[in-house]
Amino acid sequence: MTQPEGIRERLRRTFELYAEGDGESARIRAEHLNQLARLTPLLMVANVVAGGFVWLAVGPAGGVALAVWLALLGSVVLLGLVRWWHGRGRTVRKASVRGLHRGTLHAALLGLCWGWVAAQWFPAVHEAERVLLATMVAGMLGAGAFALAMLPWASLAYVGLIVVGGLVALIRAAEPLYLAVAVMLLAYGAVVSLASMALARQATALRRARYSQARQQQVVSLLLRDFEENSSDALWETDAEGRLMHRSPRLAAMLGLSIDKLREVRLPQWFGSRSHDAGPLLAAWALGRPFRDLKLQIGRGESSRWWSLSAKPITPTDGSTTGGWRGVIADVTEAQRFENQLRLQAEQDALTGLANRRSLMNAAQAAMSLGRAGWLLSIDLDHFKVINDSSGHSTGDEVLRVVAGRLQALVEEGDLVGRLGGDEFAMLRLGDSPRRAPQAMAALIIDRLSEPIVIGVKRLHVGASVGLARLDGSVANVEDLMVNADLALYDAKRSGRARSVVYANALGAASRRMHTVEQALREGLGQGQFELHFQPKVDARTLLPLGVEALMRWEHPQLGSISPGEFIPAAERCGLIHELGALALQQACLAVRQLPGLSVAVNVSPLQLMEPGFVASVEHVLVQTSVAPSLLHLEVTESLMLEDAQSALKRLHALRELGLQVALDDFGTGFSSLAYLRAFPFHTLKIDRSFVRSLTEHADARAIVNTIVQMAGVLGMRTVAEGVETDRELAVIRAIRCDEVQGYLVARPMPLGKLQDWLAGRPITGPQDDVDSRIMPWRLTQMSPPTTMFGNDL
């Protein structure tokens, strides 16, 4: 009597999901269908591949029937793939019995297809093809049965139709041996069906056990942990409509109500009316999603409190579709106030009180997220390092505070001023209708920051350069906005400082070109693409050669000839100036040995000179090449005096002690003072070509050059006029008693071999710099001025 009941119980549990049942059954059905959906693409592909083998096995003998079968199989496969495609990426939470029935129908269609294959063509083909068909049908039977095991009716329909088709095939074949095969087929189908039914029962039982365990642990795991960790927490429980079911004195005290009044409270509405940031809580409540450590600010101002809420929905056990909530409230006011203080410090510059870089970028990111337009003004103080070095860092800090105050005084509605670091500031302009246009604001900033700053007895002057970048849809992210503003700022500083530049795409192209040059530099150094050219310097009276200046040239195989004005700043930016300078020194010293009696001057970057081991490296090169120190001249620019005057002075004296001579290049265009000239051990002043070009046209330029020459004579320095290109310029240079001249009138820069020919008085041939072959040393012919000049030479 017990055995039939046991079978009935197993059958009930196997097919229990085909009754509507409660919400738990719906969720289990959904999980079974989701699992089958993940296998659908693989199963459909397997059917297509097997269908191809059927076509190969049956061949032309299949005729119209094969075509119809293939069409039916393709339609069933396509139907499965379309349904899978529409549901991809979506996880079904609940499923009705109708979903299981649809799965059963689709499985029956597939079973019909493969039963048809066996019944229709197994008797008609040869022995080899029979083996192939039997293998495929048996394989499809087993694989499909277990893939459909979570849907037992679908698995049974699929297996049953294939078994029926197989039996029809064996009967039609009419061979005695196939009777035994038919018995085996029935046994195989029964075993597969029973196994798949057992898998279905086991999978359903496991899922029910999991849901039961989750219900049992749902309240305990949340409330006990939170309550034990926070002694001041308050527990709460509501019904499905949000009315409080669990009412405690602690909760009443937190809500500011009496125990009796708690009966009237609907918790979601209470939070929504007292907190401006209750949106996430209300959304989670409406969707039935648990939440943890969700912070709410209750009230405003100094009396506001911060609560942390954690809760989970109560899973109903009576078959209803909705339940209440259980959760805990923790008062985290003190911790939140401390966190707010830390956040304020993290978003505020400690020195000036302005917004810091992080705060400014967050504001820009928020504006971009909302689709708002605006401008970013990047502001950099000009020559601030001089103030720090000459007056001390405390004075420099006070200057930064004054600058911050002046910038803050200019802001309009929607403006945010911040300090990015060092002497870099920024203004983010997001106002809808500002009184001043961005360019007008930039001009006003430059004007206000150029006003003197009085600190104690000191009257200090700083200037500013401004780069402007538009914040709109064309900017992908905040980083790009900052880069655009920095590129515009860099262009403003490069073009003379104390001015503003608006970012344009051309600046971006220039930046990309700059990056390309920087990338190619290291490769060029490694492959020997750099070569020194030499430009003679001659006595202004006799025109006899006294020395040469070494000028680095770079011919890149893809980029072509790259100007020193381009690759030297790039080398300084990417840290390769030391390697490039060392190469120039090495090649120049080797050239000295082939130029008897002539000195060679090499340009030295301020970064190179300020390197701690620079003096030792120069001494090493001199010893290595056996060159007399007096034949090596080093040329530095006036910008050296703005970097670290004391360290620079120390290194220049060390070079002089080695026996080298030092020249001050491009004198008159920078920031030199008589005090610097007296302190620094210069042997030579090189008068910038901009003065030389004006000698024959402007009397004031002649007066300036004359003054420089006389001052140099008083200080015991020689003078060199750069860029002499005409006989008239040479005549004026002679009249004011300049010592040496250098320029195209004498000779253009040339490789060492052509320089030796020039010195020997041999004609110079070839396209190099379009050198006139008639020009020989000590016999100069006037040349027309070139269309371009070589600047920033190393």
From TrEMBL:
<keyword id="KW-0812">Transmembrane</keyword>
<dbReference type="InterPro" id="IPR035965">
    <property type="entry name" value="PAS-like_dom_sf"/>
</dbReference>
<dbReference type="InterPro" id="IPR000014">
    <property type="entry name" value="PAS"/>
</dbReference>
<feature type="transmembrane region" description="Helical">
    <location>
        <begin position="156"/>
        <end position="174"/>
    </location>
</feature>
<feature type="transmembrane region" description="Helical">
    <location>
        <begin position="105"/>
        <end position="125"/>
    </location>
</feature>
<dbReference type="Pfam" id="PF00563">
    <property type="entry name" value="EAL"/>
</dbReference>
<dbReference type="InterPro" id="IPR043128">
    <property type="entry name" value="Rev_trsase/Diguanyl_cyclase"/>
</dbReference>
<feature type="transmembrane region" description="Helical">
    <location>
        <begin position="36"/>
        <end position="58"/>
    </location>
</feature>
<feature type="domain" description="GGDEF">
    <location>
        <begin position="372"/>
        <end position="505"/>
    </location>
</feature>
<keyword id="KW-1133">Transmembrane helix</keyword>
<dbReference type="InterPro" id="IPR001633">
    <property type="entry name" value="EAL_dom"/>
</dbReference>
<feature type="transmembrane region" description="Helical">
    <location>
        <begin position="64"/>
        <end position="85"/>
    </location>
</feature>
<feature type="domain" description="EAL">
    <location>
        <begin position="514"/>
        <end position="763"/>
    </location>
</feature>
<dbReference type="InterPro" id="IPR029787">
    <property type="entry name" value="Nucleotide_cyclase"/>
</dbReference>
<feature type="transmembrane region" description="Helical">
    <location>
        <begin position="180"/>
        <end position="200"/>
    </location>
</feature>
<dbReference type="InterPro" id="IPR052155">
    <property type="entry name" value="Biofilm_reg_signaling"/>
</dbReference>
<dbReference type="InterPro" id="IPR000160">
    <property type="entry name" value="GGDEF_dom"/>
</dbReference>
<dbReference type="Pfam" id="PF00990">
    <property type="entry name" value="GGDEF"/>
</dbReference>
<keyword id="KW-0472">Membrane</keyword>
<dbReference type="InterPro" id="IPR035919">
    <property type="entry name" value="EAL_sf"/>
</dbReference>
<protein>
    <submittedName>
        <fullName>Bifunctional diguanylate cyclase/phosphodiesterase</fullName>
    </submittedName>
</protein>
